[in-house]
Design a protein that fits this description.
Elements (H helix, E strand, L loop, with lengths): L2 E5 L11 E6 L6 E7 L9 E6 L5 E6 L8 H12 L10 E5 L8 E8 H13 L3 E7 L11 E5 L6 E6 L2 E6 L2 H6 L2 H4 L3 E4 L4 H8 L8 H9 L14 H18 L4 H43 L9 H15 L8 H11 L8 E5 L2 E5 L5 H13 L2 E6 L2 E6 L4
Parallel strand pairs: 1-4, 4-8, 9-12
Antiparallel strand pairs: 1-2, 2-3, 5-7, 6-7, 9-10, 10-11, 13-14, 14-16, 15-16
Subcellular location: Cell inner membrane
Main location: membrane
InterPro entries: ATPase_NBD, GspL_cyto_dom, GspL_pp_dom, T2SS_protein-GspL
Length: about 400
Amino acid sequence: MPELIVCPPLSRAHGGAEHGWVLAADDGRTLLSHGSAPLALLPAGNDVTLLVPGTALSWHAVALPPGNLGGAARLRSVLDGLLEERLLDEPESLHFALEPGAKPGATVWVAASQRIELRAAVQALESAGRRVTRIVPEFAPQPAEAPAMLFATGEPESAQLTVCDANGVATLPLSPASLALVDSAPLDTAVASAEPAVAAQAEALLGQRLPIVQTPERWLQAARSSWDLGQFDLASSGRARAGKKFGALLNALRHAPQWRAARWGAAVLVLAQLVGLNAWAWKERNALEAKRAGINAILVQTFPSVKVVLDAPLQMASEVAALQQSTGGVATLDLEPMLAALGASLPPGRVPTALDYSAGQLRLRGLNLSATEIGSLTNTMAARGYTARGEGDLLLVQAEAKR
């Protein structure tokens, strides 16, 4: 499903305000379309990634105390104490978010933003039926081992230079005076880009050609960050967080380059299984057809009068019975062999008082057999090819059906 990335206005969001948006393909890397519109006119899609503009965030490195920090309320109190003297606003008016993988006893980055404005942006989207699944920053600090990132953005009269490195995020006017404030060491290996409107200014200032990156492409890159500012009072439920993690993992498995070999391996394995199953099924089907053809051939060779084979075992039994009848022979369902088998199986001295034979079934009365004797008789008659069962003072005997 395509991913919708929405960047709200800096002022308190409302339904009629213009929201910048980007629609990304399933892989999270391909830009499908982009634009700006009120909430009611955003592209279709229920789940939204909310992009917080870089100017709405401040970044602070804090050393978390070691040990268990307890729940969210306890951690929030700790952050309030650590950041109280660094902030221009009261901590209660700000929303905090820790960097991914933050652990007690380590120095971590904390993103701070205006709580009311951020909550208003989330509520405006959700009131419009758009569920916010992630909140990501437009710019974020870089890991210590990663090169610095330089972004020249804006319009010529208000051009800005944003530097993202291991020291945090700094947004300055695009001017020589601002460049002098930036540490020159990371600039030598920095990855720089510029938006089309300020590319010429940035190239003149930095003294090098810069790749052109449109704002939607930069937002698309920011949405792939591991940051999620939806923490503390803006945190999703446990089920939603699990769903987001599962969705991110599934998306990585489907599209991330490092999983390409695994995807090819899985595809080859599935294909091999399908080919193997089809080959095994074909072999079994041929063996079954061969057995069925052999049985049909025996029937046709033995009884040439049979022209159409529908059920070979049943037809063969019928032909054998007809042959026995026409030649004066007896079959198991005839009265004579049935009486002979019954006479050899009944307890001594038991003689029926009444006997009735019809359509291959023999009924006898007056035997007065006990349950034990009926059980023994049933087993004995079964060995001779007959079924026998008692119904009150009546004994029913018939030949077993042969298939």
